[in-house]
Records
---
Amino acid sequence: MILPIYAYGDPVLKKKASPIEKDHPGLKELIANMYETMYASHGVGLAAPQIGLSLRLFVTDGSPFEEDEVKDFKQVFINPQIVEEAGDPWKFNEGCLSIPHVREDVSRKETVLIEYYDEDWNFRRELFSGLAARIIQHEYDHIEGVLFTDRISPLRRRLLNKRLSDISSGNVKVDYKMRFPSQR
Ligand code: ZN
C-alpha cells in the first residue's frame, strides 16, 4: 500500500523517533509499504517519520543511482545506531521526498559504522562508504528529527525560506502522494 509522505513543516519530522519493539504489530507489512511508497516516489531511502510514524526504522535502495557501488544497496535498518563517522567530509547535492523540488549541497563524512537489526532481526555491524554512507546519514538524520535543510548555511537556508513555507502550506506540485501539515 502506498502511503502519503509527510511534508516539510510537519512536527513528526522534527521529533526524535522511538525504538521499535520486536513484536511491533504489522512490522513486515509496514516495511513492505515503506518500500512500495519509496519506489512510487522514486526515492533511494525512506524513514518511518516520513510516513508519520515516529519509529527508528528506515529502508534504502540505491539502485536508481548510476554508480555501481550502490546498485545492490537495498537494506532495512531497524533501531540503527551510528557508532562512528570518519573520513574527509564531501559535498553531495541532496534532496528529500518530504521537501520536494529542493536540492542543496550537504557536507558529510565519507564513512559510517552502523549497528542495526535487519528485517529478520539479525544484529549487524557494518561499515559503509560513499553514496551508501550518504543515504544512511540522510535517513538516520530523519529518525533523529533532523532534515538536510538543517545542515546548510544560514544564508542558503534564508534563500529557501519562501519555498519551504510553500511546501508546508501545500503550495507545491508533486507527482506522488503527500500529506501537508494543514491536512492533519
Ligand atoms: Zn529525506
---
Amino acid sequence: MKSMDKIVSLCKRRGFLFQSSEIYGGIQGFWDYGPLGVELKRNVKEAWWTDMIRGHNDLITPAGAPSTFEMVGLDSTIIMHPQVWKCSGHYDLFHDHMVDCRESKKRYRFDQVRGRWCEHRDQKIFVSTLAEVEQELDEVRRRAMKFFKLRPKNADELTVGNESLTLDQLDDTHSVLAPDAKSLDTLTEPREFNLMFKTTIGALGGEEDAAFLRPETAQGIFVNFKNVVDSSRVKIPFGIGQIGKSFRNEITPRNFTFRSREFEQMEIEFFCRPDQSQEWYRYWRDRRLAWYKTLGLSDESLIMREHHVEELAHYSVGTADIEYAFPFLPPGEYGELEGIAHRGDFDLRSHMEGKLDPNSPPGEPMKVELNEHGKPKHRGSGKDLSYRDEVTNEKFVPHVIEPSAGADRGVLAFLCEAYTEDEAPDENGEMQVRTVMKLHPRLAPVKAAVFPLVKKDGMPEVAQEIYGELKQSMNVFYDEKGAVGRRYRRQDEAGTPYCITVDTDTLTDKTVTIRDRDTLEQTRVKIDEVAAVIHTLLR
Ligand code: ATP
C-alpha cells in the first residue's frame, strides 16, 4: 500500500529529501534535496527546459498549436525593484487569511485547518487538527474524548461526523477547538497576511530600503519583455521561460514539500495577439497536461480543473489547474501541480501605466487604480511595452498565457507516483515484498548500476571499465559489496532503471546481463554493446 509515511521515510532513508537544518531541530517549510533528490530535481527541470525551451523547434507547428512559435529562456534576479510588486498587485493583494489562537499563541491558515463536528450528549463542537489526512479521524476522536473527559469504555457516547471540513467552510468559529488549544472559541477573526518575505537593501535599512524576495518568477519575465524583444528578434507568438527560486511566507507550510516557504518554479509567459489568445490558451493547457503524462504520471491520478467563471479575474478568459491525487489528500481530492492562466494584457499594461484596477467594470479596458486623492495608486514604469507587428505595422499590447509549474511539487508527484510495492524473488528464490521507485528513465537519479557478481576472478576490473565508459555520459553507480540480490534491492529503491552485472559467463563469452527494474527480466548483451543498448533503452 502506498502511503505518505512510507514515501517520506524512503525519501529520508535513501537521500532524496531532508528537513532543512535538521541538526538544529529543522525549520518549518524548508527542505533540502539529498544526493538522489538533487539528481531527480535536476532531471525534472532539465526535462522541462529541454521540452519547452531549448528543444523547441520553431520551424514546425507542434500538434494542436495554431502556428509555429519561438521559445527563449531567461534568468532574472530574486530581488527586484519594489515597484515591480506594487504594479503586479502582490504588494496589495498577495495575502492569505490567517487566524491566531489566543490560548496557544499559534497562527494558522484559515483554509488549511481541518476537522470534524463531534457530539457528546447535547454538546456539539468542531474539533480541528493539523494532522495528516491519514491520521485526521483518529486525532479528532482522541482530542474529542479528552475534551469531553471520556474513558475508552465510554467511546460509544461520542459521535464523530463523517465529513472532514476546513475552518473556512464553517459559519463561525465559536464552537471550534483549535488545533493546539484545550478550551473552545480561542481563535481570532481571520485576518489578511501578506505572503512576501521582506528584506532590506544596504546598510541603513530604513523602510525606503525595503525589498521583497520574489513570490513568483513571472514578474522577472514581464519586466524584461522589451529587452528580450529588442535583443533576440523574437516575433509574436513567442514564449519566455524561466526556472528559479520563489519564496512565500506560507502560514502553515505542510504536506512535505507540497507547501514550502522556499521552492522552485518553472514558468512560461507566452505572448500572442489578443485575437488568438484563446486558441493559445487551449494549446498550452493541453500540452502541459500531456507533458506530465509522458513522464509517467497516470491518467487516473491527474485532472485538469477549469476554474469557474466566478473564480476568474475578469480580464482572464480562462484558468485551468493541473492537479494530482497526492496520497496525503483524502480520496477524490487533488492538489495543484501547475496553473495555466490566460492573463490578458494585465501584466504588461500594469508595468507600463501603473497597477490596473482588478475591479474595473467588465467589458471595458481596465483602468489604472487610483488612491483616495484620485492619483494612480502605484505608478508604472512609463516605458512603452507594446509590440509592433512588422508585417501589418499594427501596434498592440500582447496577451499572455502563463503555464506556471512548481518544480518541487512536480518532483513530489513523480516520487508519489513512482512508489510501488510488488513481489520479487530474493537471493534464495523466495518471493518477498520489494519496494521499487518506478521513475521514468529520464527522471531517474541514477540511470544504471554496474555490479561484479563477486569481488574476484577479474570481474571487478570488467565492471569498472563499463562503469568508466558509461560515467562519461550519464549518472552511473558502481557497487561490489554484499549479495547481488541486496544490491538490486537498493537500486530498486533508488529508482535505477537498469542494473548491469558481470558474472562468470562474462569471462568466457564477453557478455553481461542487463536487468530491467520494472519487469525484472535479464538479457545478455555483449560488453562492447552495453553503452549503446543502455542509451537506446533510456531514450
Ligand atoms: P496554492 O493554491 O497551492 O497556494 P497557487 O495557486 O498560489 O498555489 P501559483 O501562484 O499559481 O500557486 O504558483 C504556481 C505553481 O507554483 C503552483 O502550481 C505550485 O506548483 C507552485 N507553488 C506555489 N506555491 C508553492 C509552495 N508554497 N510550495 C511549493 N510550490 C508552490
